[in-house]
Amino acid sequence: MRFLVSLLLLPYFLLAQQTVPERTERIVIPGTSESYLQFIPADYDKDRLWPAIFVFDPGGNGANGISPFLEVAGEFGYLVFASNDARNGRHSENFDIAGRMINGAISNYSIDAKRMYVAGFSGGSRLASAIAVLSKQMAGVIACGSGFSPNVNEQPTQESFVYAGLVGTADMNYAEMHAAHAWLNKFDVSNRMFVFEGEHRWPDPTTIKRAILWLEMGTEKNAKPEWLAADRRYGDSLFKAGDFLMAHKEFKAIRDGKPTFAQRKYADSLLAVIGQKDDVMQQIREEDQLLAKENKLLNELSERYLQDLKKAKKASFKWWNKQIDGYTITAVEDGPQGKQAARVIRHIQAISLESGFVDQQHKDSYDKALFSSKLLLLTDPDRGYYHYLLVYTHEMGGKRDLALEQLEDSFRSGALKAPEFTTYRLHQQLQGDKDYEDLIARYSTD
């Protein structure tokens, strides 16, 4: 069974109040409670056609989604629209939500039908690619941190769009994105990977800009010389800085991404130079070997997790302790093995978070959430949010005394601070409880 990791539930997905970024505007869709953020270039002119990007954040946070695009949108003249309502867990609804946003944008602005793009991160990436596959109206996809929808009819085969896959070296979906690249190559879909140093997150504006430039080159018959120069600049900077491993990834991506003849020749020349560096090539071979096995490894971990979840009340942590201890030690190492170990830990965290909340409609959900919360703490015992989730699990499971006991233990250890805890908005059952209020007051003054 392929366990699709679509969202690492960091606190800001659930808890942060949305702040509308500068130069953007919140638009409410008439007749609904739905909204989106939009960015319109200062020199917008309705008498000419403009390119547009439709963005989907996994938590339905348009501010998170639109922010990485603002710099390039302002520089190159893109309209950007980011949904506040399409989010993970609303599969069928998301297409209607996205459709209303896209149709509203097309009605209100002069948008070039040949230069419409969809972008997304994590679960939003899966949604973006599905929209492109089903609508047949998008020129390109900017897929960040996740590949395709798990539904076969929403996966790309013979497509007219181009596909930019952006992923961090420590992203738990790193191997999945490589597999997506291979899948698209099989169907001759023009695509390219953009790898950056980082975890499972929205890419930085520089990486977004590189991807958009490549998309433009992929949808324009004659790429502008300045685009070609900009496309090479990042790889050149890595090469000159001596970061030959990342430079190799970049120039290989250029070579494999249907480049112009000049681009291919340039990439091949630098790959040949890097190919003479035995230590770098050894790391590349090592990473290739690890990647070949990584998806299988992650699937096996997911299967073990699901098996333990079925018997959550009696499940042992002995096996998990051994696995996590080993990966934690390896994760601090430089090189491909260290990065893979970090990705494995992120994967364990992600699958635990996806199942780690109490559903009061299901009798055994408390035991499952408790198992998941404890597993999270094994991966990172000092992370305050994971301590919070354990308290919340007891709270929503009706275990008041255990919730208060865990909360005090977390405060006492310093892993969780009272001011930090009170910023979270999920806790409900303890509100107004005198012992809870006294505990918060006591540790707020320490």
TrEMBL record:
Keyword line: Coiled coil, Signal
Signal peptide: 1-16
InterPro entries, per database record: AB_hydrolase_fold
Chain segments annotated as coiled-coil in the UniProt record: 284-315
SUPFAM superfamilies linked to this entry: alpha/beta-Hydrolases
Name of the protein described by the UniProt record: Alpha/beta hydrolase
Source species: Aureitalea marina
